[in-house]
Amino acid sequence: MSDEKKHKAEKGKINIELDDTVAEGTYSNLAIINHSVSEFVVDFVNIMPGRPKSKVKSRIILTPQHAKRLLKALGDNIHKFEQAHGEIRDYEKSPVPLNFGPTGQA
Questions:
Q1: pLDDT tens per residue across span 71-99
Q2: Among 40, 52, 58, 87, which residue's CB has the most CB atoms within a 10 Å radius?
Q3: In the 8-state DSSP scheme, what is residue 12?
Q4: What's the whole-model pTM score?
């Protein structure tokens, strides 16, 4: 490849870094979504049985255009997943009640 073509090819690439802490990820079993005229806010929470209080683990703020792109990308990925692994069953009622009932005792 000529230097000019190589330069053009490299110019269109985005260098995205992923540090070790972010690469580990954060587990979430609840997403709370709010929006205004200019942004969508998605709060990811991990609620656990017997814990009456939970904290937001991560907050992502998106423009409406990026929220719509995320919806499309997530839909495409779910479709590909189901083609490979079968239908993802949804629950009519959430299996994770928000109150979790009384705390257990040892």
A1: 999 999 999 999 999 999 987 766 555 55
A2: 40
A3: T
A4: 0.71
